Amino acid sequence: MLDRQDGPTIVAGHSYGGQIMTALGADAPNVVGLVYIAAFGLDEGESIGGLLAQGGPPTPALAHLDIDKQGFAWLPEDDFVRYFAADVDPPRHGSCTPCSSPWPRPRSRT
Q: What distance, in Å, lies between the first and last C-alpha atoms of the chain?
């Protein structure tokens, strides 16, 4: 997506999107700024899991987080609806959950 922008681009991210835009945005030559909206701003080598582990027990929104073999984190559908789609009309909950993406394990950058 960044390659398709014609000119200076500002990238904005929310929540775990901060991890993704930090990793991708800095390497794109047309990115002139990163905007973090209640997002994770990670330093080189940091991970969301590492930051969350420093703060004691997980928040209710992350208490049932499931990390798979590839390092992706998944929220149970009930938790996703309760903590990320609470203001969405119930008939639309089903369309929100499948499009929510897993949280990727950070790759090391060289």
A: 22
